[in-house]
Write a structure and sequence with these properties.
- It is elongated and about 135 Å long.
- Helix 1 packs parallel to helix 2, helix 10 runs parallel beside helix 22 and helix 23 packs parallel to helix 29.
- The longest helix has 42 residues.
- Strands 10, 11, 12, 13 and 14 form a 5-stranded antiparallel beta sheet that branches. Strands 20-21-17-22 form a 4-stranded antiparallel beta sheet.
- It is an alpha+beta fold and 1330 residues long.
- It is built from 44 helices and 22 strands.
């Protein structure tokens, strides 16, 4: 086909100021009129137009050059796209063969009455079209962390969409007339289809860099996504699980096999022993130890441990004499003997001198509480949860200092009410977009913009404005698609086309602040494609509208206070007005959060917890008061209760007098009434219980005062947890002391003579009591006389034969003074309290190893409170015990001691038994202890708990990290709905900044380690690495192209983009402004030697040259003429220091911005944090190897990093703290019990308890975090509390104990039985009355 044109020259415009339109022209191409025209043609379209005729005029060429320059700033970084773009439109406008692929289909009359082109068809071959689109689709535009295609092609995903965008009539990059691109061409048309330039081709003039052309990128080392890392496994089980299960199975099999063999041998040996007995005709006696199964004392647990063994001929020492001989363990540990003696002396002093003790305690408490003057509560989340030495905190401080504090965010979600969802799927709510919902949303947004504080502050005064004080606020809302909320041009149907068009091409619907709004920023719950990307075609099915208001942050407290005041006003408006009205009037659910919301709601949670604390203390007071003292008084008083009194009354009413025995008379009823009265009013412990609670509160207050002196601030977790913790530990100690005092009263109190057979009454059957006990003062004389005398006297009164007890042999006075009994109580229980308190204190104090201030402070306060509480209990509470004991024995009424009830009349004909201790004690004595000590039960228990340990070990491997913020909030907090909305609907992730510090960016090698758009940039530069990581989001959690400031800065200098950097022609040292005429200015780098080029050879070097142009770039705004200006997008991306006159500018640090992918779960946040730090560490390592003399560093920063750093070391910290706690428990128990074997058993049981708790955490979905670690430390301390008391009771218990007919067991079983009966009810202390 001969050369021919379809259009040429210009024929006016349509409307005033419109672009010039070409004229239809069906003729041959024409040679350029002038050499200037030819030169410009070659300069714009290349050497292909250096000769021959063309189909364009000089006016057309000028218009073409202007339009191409607009695109130059977007695509110049990729020569392939740039050359394809210029060839595409140069051929369309000037090609001599224009008519072969361009056909004018309609014309129009211009304002000058000329005929101009209105519509044309441009036929392009698919091969060239696809190659053209591929060369441009991956070009990045750093200022928006997006793609040039979003501005150049409206976010096109195919070449058809790209061409459609280019051909539509619109200002800017649009066409002045309609250009259509038919998919097929008639036979008379030869489509434009030259070979396209490839960004990865071998032609260096067209080859693009990695960031704009993925095909040329170096491949990063493979990193599996989180959860897909290779691990050791056997089949479907991990190696650890396999080892645990196999070990347990083999151990269980071995145990069962061994048990069967031993049982068979015992039966066989027993039958042989029976035959021998028949042959000899005699039975071995128990006294002579003739049973082959009778153990010897040498087989006691711990026989080779720390304690020494004493036989019957050796004095046990003064401390041992404080124990009742009937329950004395012959093995006495010297340290325990010393401790008993010391505690006896302390108890005797406190009981004998209660008011002196109270006075000294008041002095201590007053001095401690004076520290409340320095009391302070820490509420700042950063100071609470981020250690002062935290790397993330240091990075945050560095970022705030050099780039300014991160902006404040307010976010609102609008969805349909959950009630609109089907009953079988409450999460399947209806789509939110409708004409009515948009009208309500825009009206709602308008009210927010006009919202004022009391001093008249509005959003306009506090919002973030990227273009400066005169710019627009950044409000990301769908209103930006509709001319900032103006729905008047649209009806109930056309708004759909507008929304879908803006979702496809956000660049066509710019908000007032000038940055495109992708649909994921303003809509939530958008349907997804199979690859989990947003389905743009289904945006109308979105479940939520999202509004994000960006408020400027500042280091100036006054500005921050002003912003907080507006945020509080916004919160009040939303919570009190908008949310209720939206739900009530329209069926909408508003979920929102402001920057101040989280701190406010956490404080609100603490305030509501105060009620819980008060109720708990009142309940515990009632519980303690009603439970304490239930075993005191005479036997008939102990048996008296309302149920029994009512039963007697019913019997007396319904049975005739003839049916009643003589003993069941009115007298017995009156006696029961009198006993019940004394029990209710004399032997109750209301005042003592209240005093115990007061001591707990006093210990907490004193600990707070002490640590306030030391500058340790109180935290909310302390206020919420410490009262319960100290209450639990303190009440347990109170029950232990009271239980022991009751035993002392039963043995040595006023009623002891009846129990022992004194006073003329029979003794209790089966009761082995002390016949003639001596006080320690009396025993002192015996010790002075020598050990031989002591031994003979002592064992003369130890465990008299049962027949002697029944017959009253050896009856005498068994009464000790109240002071003696209280002192003996503390002597018995003091070492046990010391063991539990010291172990707990050390365990809690070890929690201070956790670097987070909230956890460290809690650990210190917990340790201090427990220690102070224990100190007050062994002094002040002991004095209170003595006073209360005197009151009860003098028959004075509890709460009203000035009232006395007449003493009871002892009934000598009543058969007396010792106190049973209530249902719980009888349960331990008659049911639990015999059951648990059965040989088969022992083995079963060990097997079950070993299996639980294995199961817990398996479950712990699946223990997640994190802390769901919803768990820390009140159940009715509005933030719960907000976090639910974030998890369900938010489609974009938080920004992340990679900060480079310590690098001289005026040096060429440093520039190459940062840049990404030049051929000499390092393959693994910051820009290239971040782009490569973005391409594997499953491992990097990055979703957006990085904003590489140095690329934009150097491209701003490109003289080919003559509308960006300009200087005065007459004085190149002066920069031109936007208002300066083009005739007075020229491009900055025009004529520079060496010239600007993509190899970076001619780009600025040295601090003086580099700094001068850099400062000007940071002052230049981005606009349509030059979108590469640095003021809007990069003014806060660099920390620049310079002289007052602007000279000697030097970059201290800079950051490279990108965005995380949407983070919905705690695991996502933790993995994103870890991935960002991995990337930063890799960059630091590479840059350090390239510039070893500068030692640069790269670190990532995102607002949430400071709170998630803990999860990088929380597992190791948990192992360290719990391991040290268990080690401390082992050391303390072994030292204070005198047996490393028992200490090992206690430590193993405590470890098993903690392990099981961690296993349950995994099963229940409770994550490991700082708070749960605190609870694990608490559980360790409480487990030590119970185990240590039982172990101490076991070590101090003797054999040969007969309870309720239980006997014939080995000595260790007897000791365990005695321990369970004595200690079990006290450590359980359930509120059960007989």
């Amino acid at each position: 086909m001969a050369a021919a044109c379809a259009m040429r020259a210009t024929c006016g415009s349509v409307g005033w100021g419109g672009p010039a339109l070409p004229c239809p022209y069906d003729g041959p191409p024409i040679e350029p009129e002038t050499s200037k025209f030819r030169d410009k043609l070659v300069d714009v379209c290349g050497l292909d137009y250096s000769t021959g005729p063309v189909c364009c005029s000089s006016e057309q060429l000028d218009s073409l050059a202007s339009n191409l320059n607009q695109a130059e700033a977007l695509i110049s970084s990729c020569p392939a796209c740039r050359n394809n773009f210029r060839d595409f439109f140069c051929s369309f406008t000037c090609s001599p063969n224009q008519a072969s692929f361009v056909n004018v289909t309609s014309t129009q009359i211009t304002s000058t009455d000329e005929t101009a082109v209105e519509t044309v068809d441009y036929y392009v071959g698919s091969h060239h079209a696809q190659g053209f689109f591929d060369s441009c689709k991956d070009i990045k535009f750093g200022a928006t962390n997006g793609y040039a295609m979003e501005l150049l092609g409206g976010g096109a995903k195919s070449y058809q969409e790209f061409f459609q965008f280019l051909g539509d009539v619109r200002p800017g990059l649009g066409s002045p007339f309609q250009i259509n691109f038919p998919g097929s061409a008639p036979s008379t048309i030869s489509p434009y289809d030259p070979p396209p330039r490839s960004c990865a081709g071998t032609d260096l003039a067209s080859r693009c860099t990695c960031i704009d052309c993925p095909s040329v990128c170096s491949v990063l080392p493979s990193i599996p996504p989180p959860g897909e890392e290779p691990y050791c496994h056997v089949g479907l089980m991990s190696c650890l699980t396999f080892v645990l299960v196999l070990t347990y199975a083999l151990s269980l099999f071995s145990f069962l096999s061994g048990y069967g063999i031993v049982t068979a041998l015992r039966k066989r040996r027993g039958s042989a022993h029976g035959r021998i007995r028949l042959l000899h005709g005699r039975t071995p006696s128990i006294q002579s130890g003739g049973s082959p199964d009778t153990p010897t004392s040498g087989h006691l647990v711990g026989a080779t441990s720390l304690g020494g063994y004493y036989d019957d001929n050796v004095s046990l020492g003064r401390g041992a004499s404080l124990l009742d001989p009937d329950n004395l363990q012959q093995r006495q540990y010297r340290l325990n003997t010393i401790l008993r003696r010391w505690f006896y002396r302390l108890g005797y002093f406190c009981a004998s001198s209660p008011f002196i003790t109270l006075f000294l305690a008041c002095i201590f408490v007053a001095g401690s509480n004076a520290g409340w003057k320095f009391f302070s509560v820490e509420k700042d989340p950063v100071r609470l949860w981020v250690p002062p030495t935290s790397e993330s905190r240091a990075n945050m401080d560095f970022f705030d200092e050099h780039f300014g504090p991160f902006y404040r965010a307010e976010q609102i979600f609008l969805t349909r009410s959950p009630s609109s969802a089907p009953a079988d799927d409450p999460s399947d709510i209806s789509p939110i977009l409708s004409y009515d919902s948009l009208k309500w949303w825009f009206s709602f947004e308008s009210r927010i913009r006009s919202l004022e504080t009391s001093d008249g502050t509005t959003l306009e005064d506090v919002c973030f404005k990227p273009d400066g004080p005169d710019g627009a606020c950044v409000v990301q809302s769908i209103s930006g698609w509709f001319d900032m909320g103006d729905l008047s041009p649209y009806n109930s149907t056309s708004w759909r086309r507008r929304a879908q068009g803006c979702a496809r091409q956000p660049v066509l619907c710019l908000p007032d602040f000038g940055q495109p709004l992708d649909p994921q920023y303003v809509l939530g719950g958008i349907p997804k494609n199979e690859d989990d990307t947003v389905d743009i075609s289904s945006v109308l099915e979105s479940k939520a509208l999202v509004m994000s208001l960006v408020v400027e942050n500042s280091a100036d407290p006054a500005k921050v206070a002003r912003a907080e005041a507006w945020e509080i006003a916004l919160r009040k408006y939303l919570e009190n007005e908008a949310v209720p009205s939206a739900l009530r009037d329209h069926g909408y659910q508003l979920s929102f959060s402001t920057e101040v919301s989280l701190e406010e709601e956490l404080n609100k949670s603490t305030n509501t917890d105060i009620t819980t604390v008060v109720i708990s203390y009142v309940f515990m007071f009632l519980y303690v008061s009603l439970t304490l003292g239930r075993g005191e008084g005479s036997p008939e008083e102990q048996r008296a209760s309302f149920p029994r009194l009512l039963i007697n009354l019913v019997k007396r009413t319904w049975r005739s007098a003839d049916d009643l025995p003589a003993s069941s008379s009115v007298t017995s009823f009156r006696t029961g009434s009198r006993s019940l009265l004394r029990r209710l009013f004399v032997h109750s412990k209301v005042v003592l219980g209240l005093f115990a609670i007061i001591l707990v509160l006093t210990s907490i207050a004193s600990a707070i005062g002490i640590f306030s002196y030391l500058g340790v601030k109180v935290t909310l977790i302390i206020a919420e947890v410490i009262p319960f913790l100290v209450l639990a530990v303190g009440v347990d100690n109170v029950f232990l002391l009271l239980a022991e005092l009751e035993r002392q009263n039963a043995s040595h109190g006023p009623n002891a003579q009846q129990l022992l057979g004194g006073g003329g009454g029979p003794a209790a059957p089966g009761y082995r009591g002390l016949v003639n006990p001596m006080s320690p003062q009396q025993r002192q004389r015996e010790f002075d006389a020598g050990p031989a005398g002591m031994a003979s006297d002592y064992y003369a009164v130890r465990s008299p034969p049962l027949d002697d007890v029944h017959s009253g042999v050896g009856s005498g006075s068994a009464t000790l003074s109240a002071e003696e009994r209280v002192a003996r109580t503390l002597a018995k229980m003091g070492p046990s309290l010391l063991l539990s308190t010291s172990t707990q204190t050390v365990a809690f104090a070890l929690g201070a190893l956790v670097p987070m201030p909230a956890v460290r402070n809690f650990a210190l306060y917990a340790a201090g409170s427990v220690l102070v509480n224990a100190g007050l209990q062994i002094t002040v509470f002991v004095s209170a015990l003595a006073l209360d004991l005197r009151r009860a024995e003098s028959s004075r009424v509890d709460c009203f001691p000035f009232i006395r009830i007449p003493a009871r009349i002892s009934l000598q004909d009543a058969f007396l038994i010792p106190a049973a201790g209530g249902i719980l004690a009888r349960f331990f004595r008659r049911v639990y202890a015999p059951f648990i000590l059965h040989p088969s039960v022992k083995g079963t228990v060990i097997a079950i708990f070993a299996g639980m340990a294995v199961s817990a070990g398996v479950a712990v491997q699946h223990l997640e990290l994190g802390l769901d913020q919803r768990l820390a909030l009140p159940a009715d907090s509005y933030l719960v709905n907000y976090f639910n909305a974030v998890e369900s609907y938010l489609e974009f992730g938080p920004p992340v900044y990679f900060v480079v510090d310590g690098l001289n960016v005026s040096d060429r090698s440093a520039q190459q380690s940062l840049c990404s758009r030049f051929t000499t940039c390092s393959s693994f530069s910051v820009g290239n690495t971040l782009e490569a990581e973005r391409k594997r989001p499953a491992s990097s959690f990055l979703s957006q192209p990085p904003a590489v400031w140095i690329d934009e800065f150097f491209r701003w200098l490109d003289p080919a983009i003559d509308t960006c950097c300009r200087v005065r022609i007459d004085d190149p040292s002066v920069f031109c402004s936007e208002r300066d005429s083009e005739k007075k200015c020229r491009p900055c780098w025009e004529g520079h030697d060496p010239a600007w080029n993509i190899t970076m050879e001619g780009l600025p070097l040295g601090e003086e040259e580099f700094g001068r142009y850099l400062l000007q770039w940071l002052r230049s705004p981005a606009n349509e003429n030059c979108p590469l200006g640095g003021k809007t997008a990069y003014k806060d991306a660099l920390s620049v220091v310079s002289a007052p006159d602007g000279s000697d500018a030097r970059v201290q640090a800079s950051h490279f911005r990108t965005y995380h992918s949407p983070l919905r779960t705690q695991a996502d946040f933790i993995h994103a944090y870890a991935a960002a730090h991995r990337i930063a560490n890799d960059l630091t390592s590479r840059m350090s190897s390239q510039s070893p003399q500068e030692a640069p560093r790269v670190f990532p920063y995102s607002p949430f990093y400071v709170f998630f750093e803990q999860y990088s070391y929380i597992a190791g910290t948990a192992q360290e703290v719990l391991g040290l706690g268990l080690g401390a428990a082992l050391l303390m128990t072994s030292l204070l019990l005198g047996s490393w074997r028992v200490g090992t058993i206690v430590t193993a049981v405590v470890g098993l308890a903690v392990l099981n708790i961690m296993g349950v955490m995994a099963l229940w979905g409770i994550s490991l975090n700082a708070i749960s670690l605190v609870n694990l430390v608490i559980s360790l301390g409480i487990a030590v509390e119970f185990c240590s008391h039982i172990a101490r009771g076991y070590m101090s218990s003797g054999g040969s104990i007969v309870y309720d007919g239980f006997g014939g067991q080995k000595e260790r079983d007897e000791r365990v039985f005695a321990t369970l009966v004595d200690i079990g009810p006290s450590v359980s202390h359930l509120p059960v009355e007989p």
